[in-house]
Amino acid sequence: MIDKLMDKIDDRENPTVVGLDPTYDIIPETIKQSMIEKYGKTPKAAGQMIYSFNKSIIDGIYDLVPAVKLQVAMYEKYGIEGFRAYLKTTQYAKKKGMIVIGDIKRGDISSTAEAYAAHIGGIKIEDTYLDLWNEDAVTLNPYMGFDGIKPFIDPCNEYDKGLFILVKTSNPSGAEIQDLITDGKPVYEHVAGLVSQWGELAMGTRGYSKIGAVVGATYKEQGAALRKLMPHTFFLVPGYGAQGASGSDLKGYFDKDGRGCIVNSSRGIIAAYKKEARYGDHNFVDAAREAVIKMKLDLGENI
To answer: Residue 151: which residues within 8 A CB-CB, separation 6 or more?
Structure first.
């Protein structure tokens, strides 16, 4: 997976992942009203809105962007219809040749972790194998240690999938735990060491592990330090755009060859049409495409 992701980034010359996290207020009114007229004020209408919106965004950006990331909570809040929209979206993104990251942030142990690992390991019913989620990688919370990570490592190797494990997140209150000092260094550095260690169990062929790290863009000094501590760990970087970070904050996150990261933007791209009066509901795809191009240029000037 990590080799495929790096190949896609090289092909697009763009280390950007678009977060398909469509809250109800982001979806254009034209799509909302169309689905409500057809399905009523129901979860089915909401699911259809989400998928219609996502499909249009993907159609508008897939030639520019290597990957999409879906925050599962935005979908599961609508129950089965939300999950249906999630699965249809991942399937469509894969059809368009994109890498799909499931932002599921799971973190449990034993048989529960094994069940969650079906997100990338698929399921077997008798002699039939099914990859239901269509995800190339997922995000994980490491709070329970290796017991919560181990069930995902076999699928990484067997099915060429990937993980991004929370190390230093972009939200301010993450410091309440992540920056606590223990044995002379912050907790996030201890986690970084563990992620690097676990990464040795699932290496790719281009110098990076299939086990990556989530490192927020809003702490540039810590991000640069983590790059030095984790030379073989690929970073998934949230916090760009709507949360305040720009390309200039990320110089230290990339390796000497300008690789090693994929940077996420969600609202900054999918809600771009709301920020400029020249765009309306009918032009949300054009706005998203322009936002992708601006982000690509910004990152390109700084790596």
So the answer is: 113, 114, 116, 117
